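Lab meeting prep.
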Amino acid sequence: MSPSKQLGKRHSGDSAANRRVSVRFPASPMTVSHMRLPHKTVFKRVRLFNISQGGVGILVRKPWPLNTEVDFQIKNELLNFTFDLPAQVVHATRYTRGRWIVGFAFERQLSLAELASLV
């Protein structure tokens, strides 16, 4: 299956190759992230493993199914602003024993200025 078909309708303009060339950064300690599944009303706090213009990675105990859609709220506490970013699971990679990095592609890419405010 082609990368654009794997990503579904929400990310039809992105390609896996373009996402992989994005530089990933650790999130700033002043960056707080919450995530929810679209059919849920409550956001849960998550710690970002890394962030790029195209998406985020989080560290979890179990892999998530590809194409799972979620909504992120990523806030810079120091500057007091929040980004609401729909995203979709694009990979789950074993990190260490009992830990996985789940990667999410944003529906839209962050600008360089937006990314800089979160790292």
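Slide two material, second protein:
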Amino acid sequence: MPQVRREFDQGRHRDSFDLKAARIYASLRGDRKLKAPDALQLSCAASVGVDLFIANDERLQRERVAGVQFIVSLDRAPSEVESGSPDTRLN
């Protein structure tokens, strides 16, 4: 089982919408480019410093969000994410 799945099953990827996420959300919504649900998900991801955010909307991969290292569309997402195993499709 991939490491990400194990961590999710163990509850390590469940984070709440806190004050830090709320501030990021406000800044993302400030320019009105992002829809509220997209800004909400990205702000939560940014507040915990995710490496990879996989979106079902190709337009989001053009966004730059401090705290999120990579934003990729679902069709470009690594098929299996393993610690220390970069996927060459992202290059």
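Talking points for slide two:
The radius of gyration is 14 Å.
Confidence is low (pLDDT under 50) at residues 85-91.
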